[in-house]
Specification:
It is built from four helices and no strands. With 91 residues, the chain is mainly alpha-helical. It has one domain. It starts with 5 loop residues before the first helix and ends with a helix.
């Protein structure tokens, strides 16, 4: 007799659509993780290329690259703090 109010419909989620919504959330989360992982990989590669192109002995470069590969975040931070400081002291 009375039409359903639109306000009630906007807050109600049909249980049959719950699985579709969870699949969309899962897909969105998976794609977000993939994109962030790709960005992280590009950053690590750029830092390694920067280390290789810098002046310095091969031994120091190998140590820095290994540090960045084994512990990426800490290795990158240490390289940009200490790597640049050692270059300034050497000049």
């Amino acid at each position: 007799m009375y039409p359903e109010s639109p306000a009630r419909d906007t807050f109600f989620v049909d249980p049959s659509r719950m699985s579709v919504l969870s699949e969309v959330d899962e897909l969105t989360e998976r794609k977000t993780v993939e994109i962030l992982s790709l960005i992280w990989l590009v950053i690590v590669i750029l830092v390694i290329v920067t280390i290789i192109r810098d002046d310095g002995s091969a031994g120091h470069k190998i140590l820095w690259v290994l540090l960045v590969i084994l512990v990426p975040l800490i290795g990158m931070i240490l390289y940009f703090i200490l790597g640049n400081a050692t270059k300034k002291l050497g000049n």
